[in-house]
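thought: fold this chain, then report.
action: predict
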Amino acid sequence: MAKRTATIERKTKETQIELELDLDGRGQYEIETGSGFFDHMLSHLARHGLFDLVVRAQGDMHVDAHHTVEDVAICLGQALEQSLGDKKGISRFGWSSVPMEDSLAQVTIDISGRGGFIYKVQFRAAKIGDFDAELVAEFLRGLAHAARMNIHVTVPYGSNNHHMAEAIFKALGRSLAQAVRLDPRVRDVPSTKGVL
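observation:
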């Protein structure tokens, strides 16, 4: 079986990012973005997605975390797209419902070849520590469009911002693990179009 890996580098006037992804890893990660909370969320994504992830990002954190979060999302999306190749044999769809104490997150994805993003989440405050809560949506939107996949996220209830965000990233990881899994019964691309 061909290795499903990718290495992405992105350099702009706002960020410098190196990202490595192995879809068939064991959930190991090395993450340094300059934001402790974002590192924490990405670690959940890798651990529960069972893929190996290395992220080294330097960004204009003196402004805020927006550019770093957005550009890491773009790099991760590009790495997913690249590592999946022609997408033959993948399960394509993934869904997960993850509780985190007071909160529940539901994430459904379709590696469809088309970017789409639906987000039904209401955080209780604008900040999670020093992290802007709105950046959770920015990350997911950037990932959906760069990876050319649909991501639908719903948090029907929750009272703690940290728990809500953590449940989202865990559910996203589990959904990705399911969607990228190779199914021996799928011999071609899982689409009536013949391409994804």
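thought: worth noting. The first strand starts at residue 5 and ends at 11.
final: tokens above.
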